[in-house]
Fold this protein.
Amino acid sequence: MTRSLTTAIKNELATNDINPVHLITIGFGTPVNLTDCSFNLTSSVSGSSVTYSSSDFVLGISNHTEETDITKSSVSINLSGADQTFISVVLNENVINDEVTIYRGLLASDNTLIADPFLLYKGNIESFDIEENDKNSTVGLSIVSHWADFEKRMVVKQIIHLNKDSLIQM
C-alpha cells in the first residue's frame, strides 16, 4: 500500500526520538477503540473525533509485510481476557467479518499525538481463538485483508466453472 506521510510525521521521524503508538478500532456490535499507549488518546484520523482508551488488554499485534502484488495478508491481535469482556463478546456475538482498523501514530516529546496517524492495517476478523489456564486468558483475533473475500469468490467461481464443464462432457 503506497503511503504518503505528512510533514509533521516526517519531521518527528527525523528526530530519531520515535514513540510509536497504535490506535485500534474493533468493530464489534459495540465498537471498541483501544490504544497500546499508557494514556488515552483522541484522534480524528477516522473522520470524526474518537477517544482510544489506554488498555493493558492489548497484549500484542503481529508483524506483517506489505507486498506490491495483490495478495491476502493477515495480522493477529492478542487481547487479555482477564475481565472476561472480550471472551464474552467473541462467544456471544457473531464477530466473524467485523472490521478492524489499526493506525500507527507517533507521540511528540510532550506526549501529544502528532497529527495524522497513518493507516497500518485494515481488514476483517477471519477467526478467533481463546486460550485459558489457571492464571490468565487471552483472545486471539486473526484479521485478514479484504483480498481474502476476493480469493474465496475466485475459488467458488472456479468450482462452478469446473462443475459446468463436467456437466457438458456427460
Residues 99 and 124 are 4 Å apart (CA to CA). The first helix runs from residue 7 to 14. The first strand starts at residue 20 and ends at 26.
